[in-house]
Design brief:
- There is one protein chain.
- By secondary structure, the protein is mainly alpha-helical.
- The chain is built from 21 helices and 4 strands.
- It has one domain.
- It has a two-stranded antiparallel ribbon. It has a two-stranded antiparallel ribbon with strand order 3-4.
- A hairpin with a 6-residue loop joins strand 1 and strand 2.
- Helix 11 runs parallel beside helix 13, helix 11 runs antiparallel to helix 20 and helix 19 packs antiparallel against helix 20.
- The protein is globular.
- It starts with a helix and ends in a 9-residue tail after the last strand.
């Protein structure tokens, strides 16, 4: 098949999925296309990369960015603000219910003052602000959980089949070659094989969760149609995940599917309270085993990697010896700029490195121990809020806890606390957004009281939450 014809066939199938998708919510808001466009750029490539307009060196691109990217992102941010203003969002309540996230974001903004590259740092912080606004556009929708469902589903419809088409027919775009070994790396719509693996990770996680929660209604015609689409897309996703050779994404997908299964059909259904201590207990036990027995060597062997985790241990050693402010870091996303970038490249012996391959170390380099403590507080506060959902809806709680656990594990070998698909997904399930009764449809309403008398959820239908969560994130 000629490449142009393959692209036309993909586009026709995409339009049919968007128009006749059996899982489509006919009452969906047109505003959801804004976060979809943003998420597509986050999960794949920036606008300038898609148009092949980035011709500067890596160091220059990291520092100055692309004018086209700045214009596109700023336009999307303005449109998102317009939507939120029209919805009369109570910003005071949003800030109060997400105090840990607010302080973490404010520290990033404040750190611009001591950054060596304040303009580059501010642009990156502004882009991160755009992520928060896009998440709010989704969560302030009249049917927020249906909006989350539609957003992730549309992203998968768009990017997973397109990756296959590009790898099959446009290899100059979808396949890159190592300049040293000459080995091929399949990247699809993404800019690296690890990013393609991340896309497959969250697409596969959503499809597995959606299939499992609909399985009880498989005798219905519409449900069978949805399950058929899920199965087809899941096969494509797993094929791409294997092709990407991303060990971290494969391991995280296994962990996420295991958690979803335990919560929905395992011991989580019989005794949800056990899950509140099970996940952190396993993570702490794994951390202790690493310090005592160096368990990472066994895990690396299990996923087909060497004990150095493909050179990551050497990167970590170099970065820990870098000259930074241990308390407050070098400024928001400022480490990989200027002389520090050149120094790391010289020490590592290979140009092109632009991340720590560890989200916690990345946070320490940019925001210091203070920022790292705020990040840990944010993760703990989010986990507490997600655990309250176990008494509201096991289905939504299952994917929420899976996403949280994946983010914690994923950042051990990758950097994803920021402008990334894992971070965006955590915000989707972890931000607490207040909603007025006037915004809610007239449906069955149940009120669940959480600590300090705050409402946890509203109008819950068996098996699937249709409302929003009012628990504070602190």
């Amino acid at each position: 098949m000629p490449p142009s014809l393959a692209l036309i066939v993909w586009f026709i199938i995409l339009l049919c999925l968007f128009a006749f998708d059996p899982a489509k919510d006919r009452r969906g808001s047109p505003a959801l296309w804004l976060p979809l466009i943003w998420l597509v750029f986050v999960a794949s490539r920036s606008p300038s990369q898609w148009l092949s307009l980035t011709t500067a060196t890596i160091a220059t691109t990291l520092e100055e960015g692309s004018p086209l990217d700045h214009i596109v992102y700023f336009a999307l941010i303005c449109l998102a603000l317009r939507v939120l203003v029209a919805r009369h969002v109570s910003w005071r309540d949003v800030f109060a219910r997400n105090s840990a996230l607010l302080l973490f974001a404010l520290l990033g903004l404040l750190s611009i003052l001591w950054s060596d590259f304040p303009f580059a740092s501010f642009r990156r912080w502004l882009r991160e602000l755009g992520t928060y606004l896009m998440v709010l556009v989704v969560l302030t929708d009249a049917r927020p959980l249906d909006a989350i469902d539609a957003l992730i589903r549309r992203m998968s419809y768009l990017l997973i089949p397109l990756s296959i088409v590009l790898i099959k027919y446009f290899r100059e775009i979808a396949v890159v070659y190592d300049p040293w070994s000459g080995g091929a790396a399949f990247v699809g719509v993404a800019s690296s094989k690890n990013m393609l693996g991340t896309l497959c990770l969250f697409s596969g996680l959503f499809l597995f969760w959606d299939t499992l929660r609909r399985w009880a209604d498989r005798n219905r015609k519409r449900t069978r149609q949805i399950l058929f689409v899920n199965a087809a897309l899941l096969i494509m996703t797993l094929w791409l995940l294997n092709l990407s050779d991303s060990a971290t994404s494969r391991l995280c997908l296994l962990i996420g599917c295991l958690i979803i299964t335990i919560v929905q059909v395992g011991p989580g259904r019989a005794n949800p309270s056990r899950l509140k201590v099970m996940i952190p207990s396993v993570l702490i036990a794994g951390l202790l085993m690493e310090f005592i027995f160096t368990a990472s060597d066994t895990v690396a062997s299990f996923v087909g990697r060497d004990p150095t985790l493909s050179g990551r241990t050497e990167i970590w050693r170099i970065l820990l010896n870098a000259d930074t402010n241990p308390l407050f870091g070098v400024g928001y996303q400022s480490f990989w700029l200027g002389p520090r970038l050149a120094a790391v490249w010289a020490a590592y012996g290979m140009p092109g490195l632009n991340e720590a391959h560890n989200g916690y170390l990345e946070t320490y380099l940019n925001l210091g121990l203070f920022g790292l403590c705020l990040l840990v507080w944010l993760l703990i506060a989010t986990y507490r809020m997600l655990c309250r959902r176990l008494t509201v809806s096991l289905h939504f709680a299952s994917i929420s806890l899976a996403v949280w656990t994946i983010l914690v594990v994923y950042n051990v070998t990758e950097s994803a606390f920021g402008h990334s698909l894992p971070w965006f997904t955590l915000l989707l399930v972890g931000m607490a957004v207040p909603r007025s009764d006037a915004q809610m449809p007239v449906e069955v309403q149940r009120y669940h009281q959480a600590d300090k008398g705050r409402v946890v959820g509203r109008y819950v239908r068996p098996g699937l939450v249709r409302g929003s969560f009012h628990t504070e994130n602190s």
